[in-house]
UniProtKB/TrEMBL annotation:
Entry superkingdom: Bacteria
Signal peptide segment: 1-19
Sequence segments annotated as region (Disordered): 228-249
Upper lineage: Bacteria, Pseudomonadati, Pseudomonadota, Alphaproteobacteria, Acetobacterales
Ranges annotated as biased composition (Low complexity): 228-241
Keywords on record: Signal
Organism: Acetobacter cibinongensis
Protein name (database record): Secreted protein
Length: 249
């Protein structure tokens, strides 16, 4: 009888010891889920990104907007990786320059440009895009003191649609232009050339960026630039076409 009792007690103790880790594991998982950051919770998004091409590269800099947000990043080989604007701040909290990241997205056919839908940091944290593409630049005018940028052009700056919309200088500052104006001034926007720009924008931890109001190869050769989606400048007051309403002639 004593042997039977001892065997039963031993079996009960062994069962308890085996079951205990499962209880602790469940508690640990619940605790981890409760303390996940918003960025980490976005890793399990609505869409399965495993079918998208995967890329990797070392982050050189963010692509700041003139309003202080982030439009994407630039890899060491010059490839621009763009995200939708609502994911910009999430991206800035996920990675930092110098990180080697993994990217799920779509590469442009002939441009060094990737539209990213998922980015994973070297620490295993992931951002998944919501597949909503909003306008990259606010139509509102920025008020504040002028910022003057000048230096050698490193890269053209692209929009999500692949249009040139400014440049990235070698000092990592960014000059934003409306695509229409970038086309008009394309002779001045080639990599390796020196550019001088004046405009309002932001200058912070994520980088320096302006909406150019004046632009030229030197400070003595500046031309006026139309900002954002504003209509192009019309004829000067007093000129022959000043009083003519377009489409009425």
């Amino acid at each position: 009888m004593r042997s039977l009792f001892s065997f039963t007690a031993l079996l009960l103790a062994t069962s308890t010891a085996v079951a205990a880790p499962a209880v602790r594991q469940g508690s640990s998982q619940a605790s981890f889920a409760a303390h996940q950051t918003v960025t980490e919770q976005q890793a399990s998004g609505v869409y399965d990104l495993s079918g998208l091409p995967q890329f990797s590269g070392k982050v050189v800099q963010f692509l700041p907007s003139s309003h202080g947000g982030v439009l994407g990043l630039v890899l060491a080989d010059g490839t621009q990786v763009l995200v939708s604007p609502e994911q910009g701040h999430t991206l800035a909290g996920l990675i930092k320059p110098g990180d080697t990241v993994s990217i799920r997205g779509i590469k442009a056919r002939s441009l060094a440009l990737i539209r990213a839908f998922g980015i994973t940091s070297p620490r295993g944290r992931t951002m998944q895009d919501g597949f909503i593409a909003l306008q990259q630049q606010s139509p509102e005018m920025i008020t504040g003191p002028d910022i003057v940028l000048h230096g050698e052009i490193w890269l053209p700056l692209y929009t999500l649609e692949g249009q040139i919309a400014g440049v990235v200088l070698k000092d990592h500052s960014v000059i934003h232009l409306a695509p229409r104006e970038a086309t008009r001034l394309q002779a001045w926007l080639k990599p390796g050339q020196t550019l001088y720009a004046v405009g309002t924008g932001s200058n912070g931890e994520l980088g320096t960026a302006i909406d150019a109001r004046e632009l030229g190869p030197t400070s003595g050769q500046l031309v006026s630039v139309t900002i954002g989606n504003a209509p192009p400048r019309g004829p000067a007051p007093g000129s022959a076409g000043y009083d003519v309403i377009p489409g009425s002639e």
